Amino acid sequence: MFCPIMVDISNKKVLIVGGGKIAYRKAKSFLKYQASVLVVSPQFIYRFYELKKKYRQQLTLIEDTYDPKYIDGSFLVVGATSSRKVNEQIALDSHRLNILCNIVDRKEESNFISPGVVDKDGLVISISTMGKFPYLTRKIKEDIEHRYSKFDKEYLDLLEKLREIVLLKYKEKSHELFDHCIDMNKYELKEFLMELKNENVYKGA
User: Fold this and answer.
1) Cβ atoms < 10 Å from Cβ of 191
2) What's the CA gap between 145 and 141, in Å, rounded?
3) What residues contact residue 123 under an 8 Å CB cut-off, 6+ apart?
4) Please, what CATH class does the domain formed by 13-114 belong to?
5) What per-residue confidence (pLDDT) applies to 200?
6) Which DSSP helix (H) or strand (E) runs through 91?
7) In the chain, domain spans
8) pLDDT digit string (tens) for 47-76?
9) Which of 15, 75, 157, 197 ranks highest by number of CB atoms within 10 Å?
10) pLDDT surpassing 50 at residue 205
């Protein structure tokens, strides 16, 4: 059974075997979170070379077929080749070394999966159907991105400041205050934050 957790992968080695679209999406995602990504494949789609220009230090591309030696020192492994046999071997090698692996064409050979993610610089929401219907994951992700579009970094920073003040001065009213402010726009939230700083305590409805 998969447990939803968040893991710090900064500066950790992630091996991706495969050079196609799925491998590219995986690499792009891991690079965003500052992993050190090694991608091994006999050939790569062109977008990999564009990605290399952006992440010169983080991304390594090796034109080669899969070899177990590439797994050494990996924190995570992704098998994303078009060969069932190769992906199966990647899973076997990873399990033997107790390294977490994701096999893109066979969930039962994986011991981690990559959910759909909404990441708004502080607000992170993960969505998964556990591989049963990925289209639904994409649909829910789009709906969440639209519904919570106002929660950008500036808005979340304001909420963080508000939370600090509320827990320090108005802890007994925290739920009431949080419920009240969460529907505000950015301007209203700034005004409300100023009121709290000036100890103009919100009395509620």
Assistant:
1) 10
2) 6
3) 148, 151, 156
4) alpha beta
5) 64
6) helix 84-96
7) 13-114, 153-197
8) 999 999 999 999 999 999 999 999 999 999
9) 15
10) no
